[in-house]
Design brief:
single chain; 359 residues; mainly alpha; two-stranded antiparallel ribbon; 14 helices
Amino acid sequence: MFRAVFYPLADTVKAFNVFQYISFRAAYAAVTALLIAFLLGPKVIQALIHLGVGQQVRTDGPKTHLSKEGTPTMGGILIIFSFVISVLLWQKLNAPSTWIILLTALGFGCIGFVDDWLKIKRKNSAGLQAKVKLYGQFIVAFAVMVFIYTTRNPETTLLYIPFLKNSVLDLHIFYIPFGVLLLVGVSNSVNLADGLDGLATGLVIIVLLAFTVLAYLTGHVEFANYLFIPYIKGVGELTISSTALLGACVGFLWFNSHPAEMFLGDSGSLTLGALLASLSLLLKKEMLLLIIGGVFMLEVLSVIIQVVSYKLTRQRVFLMAPIHHHFEMMGWKETKVVVRFWILGCLFAILGLSTLKIQ
């Protein structure tokens, strides 16, 4: 919105010329979201406490988590609000990618909100029925993919593999179910990682730092051609989406770091995962997301291994799944698990970005 209002004034006041630059708007989108989250955080916490919106802790989990009972949850609404306002202020409103991102945030945010609210209302950790929540995610993901497909460019349905210069496959109409599965899968992978104070939020921040770089490079024809990555006209605006979400997450992490004053809840974790997937789809970095978000993939893999192993052999591979709980059960302090997983997340991000030159 700011670009549409102030950039036309550059003819009379030359300083307004900065509103045309993505780098300028991206920086201030991050600052805007950060300030909104930071300033509203205490008010949101107080409001959630007043409403009795407290976390319900599973009794079969690590005993150290029992003290977290009653900590305000649904903190994801703070991230969503900060992010949406920042995007509306700093990103081009006539760009289809802007509305695709906002649809993703609000759609998955609503599903998470209902799930969180039911947990609070019932005073246990069971929210929406698993199949109902999954159906909701598939419906929203399908709507997002139809939006992407109907506003597609020549690159949209192509699938690129890290380490290879050219696309390997054109999925055509099958890009829709592919994207639906990616949106739902990544959304739930971040949800699985949201089990320790600051863990999921910190990992999302690391992924977003990498995707901010990718968005800027992909939307810049000279950089894209130099790196042999697909140049996609107009997706440079997604740099603003990425930094806005980055700022919102950093502001939230101030209150979510150990000991957490509020939790993400499904309203936050489901939304963050879906937004990462949405960014990867629009930037044609779907497969690269699996590397950069490697820790999230490990969390999912640990759950799959645990379930399959127990069903087949009645033996558990991990002391508890997802894998971050395994290390807690081994005696690692919560903060040690979180920081070490953040370090692992940084390594995956560096590995993912290195593929830009190894092809």
